[in-house]
C-alpha cells in the first residue's frame, strides 16, 4: 500500500503483520543487536550463506574453476570473482532506508543467493568435464520488453512437448534435491507475495512455473534484479558498464548444463535433449554476449508501443521496492526505467545491425501476435527452420485456451504516475525507433 504523494516521495504503508513485526523488533528484541548480527556487510552475509549452503561445500573463494593442473578457459576465468561486486552491493545496500523487517528480508535474500553460488561453484568443480561435454543446441530466447507479449510467446513455445524451460525452484536452487529446493523457495515466495499484496498481478510466479533467466543469473552478484529492490546508482553503473558479461553468460550456460545433467529430458524418437526455451528482457542489454555464448541461438524480439512497456517496468520496480523500503520516489522509478530500457533497446539494435547476428533474430509484432497467436508461433518455427509437429501445434492451441487473463487482478499503472514523458522516451530510444518504426 502507498500513502499520499508528497513531492514524488511515497511513504510505504506496510501490511499489518509486517507492521507488527517491526513494532515488536523495536520494543522487545533489541533490534540494533539483531541488525548487527544480520547486517548487510560481506562478512555477515557470507557467514549466513555458509550456514545455508550444503554441508561440505567450501566457503566462497576466488580460486580457479577448472580442476587442479588445468587453466580456466577465457570465458570462465572471472566466474569465481565475487569480492568487488559484493563489496559494492553491500556498500549501496547500507545507504538504503529500509524498515527492520525489510533489513532482515534483504539479509535473507542475499545470503540465500550467496549460498546458492557456493553450491553451484562446488558442483561445477566436482563435475567440470562432464558439464563441459554437454551441448546446448539452438536454444530459444524471448527478449522483448515487458508488456510486449513475451509471456504469451514464451508459454506457447514452451508448451511444445519437445521443449523444456527452467522453472522457479530450478532457477534458484539448480544443484539441490527437488524437495529441499522447493521448500526453500516456497518460504521466500510466500513471504514476498504476502508483504506486497498485488505483486503477482505485476509478475506471476510459482515454484513449478517457468522462471526468467534474470533469476538464475543472480548468484553472479552483479544482477539487475537487485536494482529492482532498491535504488543503487553506483551498483547499476557496475552492472551495466564494468561487469564481466562473458563470465555472466558462461554462468548462464553452466546452469543449463547442470539442469540438463541432473534432470535429463529427451525428445521422442531421436533421443536428443529437449530444446531450451528461455526468457527475460534483460538479455537485450547483453544480447551480443548471449550470441557469443550461444551462436546458434534463436532470438525472438517482441515489439510494441514503448509507452506500454516503459511505465509497466516502472510499476514492476515500484512493487518490488515496496518489499523493504520505507519510502519510494516514483519519479526515480520512472527515470530509471526510461534510462535502462532505452540503453537496452539501442544496444540490441546495434547488435542486430551486425550482419553476423541479423539472421539470429525474429522480430515479432505485438499487434500481430494478439490477432493471430497460433499462426505467429508457426511462423517463428518456419523462420528458424525448427520442426513444428502436429503435437506441438495441438499443445500450443491448448495452452492458448488455458491462459487466464488477470488471474491475480489487474495491473494498473500510468506514465503520469512515474513522471514518464513520451517525448523523452522517443528521444532516448531514437536509434531503436528509427530502425523498427514499422512495429
List the helices and strands and how they pair.
Elements: E1 2-6, E2 9-12, H1 16-28, H2 31-37, H3 42-52, H4 83-93, H5 100-126, H6 128-132, E3 140-142, H7 150-158, E4 163-164, H8 168-172, H9 178-195, H10 199-202, H11 213-216, H12 224-229, H13 233-242, H14 245-262, E5 275-279, H15 287-293, E6 298-303, H16 306-321, E7 327-329, H17 330-353, E8 361-365, H18 366-371, H19 373-383, H20 390-401, H21 422-428, H22 430-435
Helix pairs in contact: 3-5, 4-13, 7-20, 14-15, 16-17, 19-20
What features would you describe in this structure?
It is built from 22 helices and eight strands. The chain has 439 residues and is of the alpha/beta class. The strands form two sheets. It has a five-stranded parallel β-sheet with strand order 4-5-3-6-8. Helix 14 crosses helix 15 and helix 19 runs antiparallel to helix 20.
Fourth CATH level, the homologous superfamily: P-loop containing nucleotide triphosphate hydrolases
The span between the termini is: 36 Å
What is the CATH architecture annotation? Answer: 3-Layer(aba) Sandwich
What name does the CATH topology carry? Rossmann fold
Question: Keywords for this structure?
Answer:
single chain; 439 residues; alpha/beta; Rossmann fold; 5-stranded parallel sheet; 3-stranded antiparallel sheet; disordered N terminus
